[in-house]
Amino acid sequence: MNIVIAGGTGFVGQHLTEHFTSKGDHVSILTRHPENHEDRENVRYVGWLKEEYTPERELQNVDAIINLAGASLAGGRWTPERKKLIRQSRIDATNGVLSLIENLDKTPDVLVNGSAVGFYGTSVYKSFTENTEEPGNGFLASVTKDWEATASQAKLKGVRTVYARFGLILGTEGVLPLMKLPYKYFVGGRLGNGEQWMSWVHIDDVVGAIDEAIHNSSIENALNVTAPTPKRNEDFLRTLGEVLERPHWCHVPGVFISKTLGEMSTLVLNGQAVYPQKLKAHDYQFHYSDVHGALHSILKK
After folding, report:
1. SS3 assignment for 61-96
2. What is the pTM of this model?
3. CA neighbours within 13 Å on the CB side: how many for 143?
4. Averaged over 251-258, what is the pLDDT?
5. For a 10 Å CB count at each end of the chain, is N or C smaller?
6. Across the beta sheet with 64-67, what order do the strands follow?
């Protein structure tokens, strides 16, 4: 297959590239700075989102596009300027993908567009599946709603479109290295009241779910990319301490986190219990459905 990845130089994109090239697929990574990268076997870097670049001239017979591009949620306090960047970077990149689709010589079969479980808002008591169609409240719900609405325009171009609603992705990069730091110094413990849900997923299952979305033509619209066993913060972090063989005892008060991080503290203090109903309905076999096994596979290599 010929697969195009926007945002392919990041944590998830690198794993996807390794996965698809190991199967013999050809991967083209869209980047604003192709000069900073060297092409290699089955992988090339294609310039986009600048006037001087015309990626459609370099891409032929594209079968699938994966769009992961967007500014990090954890790149600093959510000032008005930062929030604008988080939203607009996703919209602009997705519009860039739509423009690319419009100008390609062949219409791709599928677009897998990034999204997040933040679409559902936050709740201590409710649980969510893809059957929950209305977005929740708050900044992240608003961003993901607009992000998905923009990507949905690909349907008008005859492209099967999937919104990959990612949970908390566990791997050697991303948020897990930060989460284990307190345990390294023997001060690990729950954050806030510990009741907030953490809908986690192992990086191997992120790759597996996207592969499934590309190859299974009956998957479209929302797709929850989470493990089937969300955990409350207290339970998740206690398990992390067990895997690291470190004590779990130091409670960090929610008011301290709120004052330190501002509105961004919602990433830490609030969550949602999200279940991958659609993946299970399509008999996707999870590599890691147990959080202890998932953490052990990453931290005890």
Report:
1. CCCEEEECCCCCCCCCCCCHHHHHHHHHHHHHHHHH
2. 0.96
3. 23
4. 92
5. C
6. 43-47, 26-31, 2-6, 64-67, 110-116, 160-166, 221-225
